[in-house]
Amino acid sequence: MTPRSVLRYETWTLQPDREPDAEQVLYAMQCAVDGETSPSSEDFAEPQDWVLRHCGQNPSHHTYREIITRPWRAWRRT
């Protein structure tokens, strides 16, 4: 008797997690010049304020990256 393998293909779904117990979406900004990063916040206005303060203190820093941490969930379709 020889061993054999059984393959089963399944369909999975991936989407942002909007369940009541999901983690919060967090926003932050990072200066592309010096790599300094704002604190993360559920309110995007706080990282925006950080950018305005940072560029006020560093007038040559004009470029920033937005960092979004968004929870996702995957499940197998039946």
TrEMBL record:
Domain DUF7848: 1-77
Pfam families the UniProt entry points to: DUF7848
Highest taxon of the lineage: Bacteria
Cited InterPro entries: DUF7848
Protein name from the UniProt record: DUF7848 domain-containing protein
High-level lineage: Bacteria, Bacillati, Actinomycetota, Actinomycetes, Kitasatosporales
